[in-house]
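Human:
Care to share another protein and its fold?

Assistant:
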Amino acid sequence: MLTRIFDSTTLKGMEKALDGAALRQKVIANNIANVDTPNYKAVEVTFEDQLRRALEKEVTGGLGLKTTHPRHISVDEEGSTVFNMEPQIRTVKGTSYRNDKNNVDIDREMAKNSENELYYNAVIRALNDEFKLLRTAITGR
């Protein structure tokens, strides 16, 4: 029973959100460290939209394709669930703020760092609240 509780969609979604925020922190730190490196292109992490879609699919049960014959084309529904979701890293191309073709804007990176810190702390608070609810349900207090 406890295994099912800790494998819940809510907790898994929070775990993936924390993983994505931790990866984003590393990427932002790397961008800041390379602010003066010629030809360096900023990198960013995206996962919130993917996480939101996966969570919505878990909650609604998804609207997958039904196959009635073994030769019908099937869609792998598992690839889009919260349990298999991974943050995406992409290089920001097409912008250049300086003559050395570096596109890292230190002010933007610092703002993204602050936003990511707030996001991480909010998910930690939500995770703590979830554990308090579980503790209350188990102990009855």
User: Anything to note?
Assistant: Residues 76-80 have pLDDT under 50 and may be disordered. The CA atoms of residues 79 and 102 lie 35 Å apart. Strands lie at 43-46, 88-91.
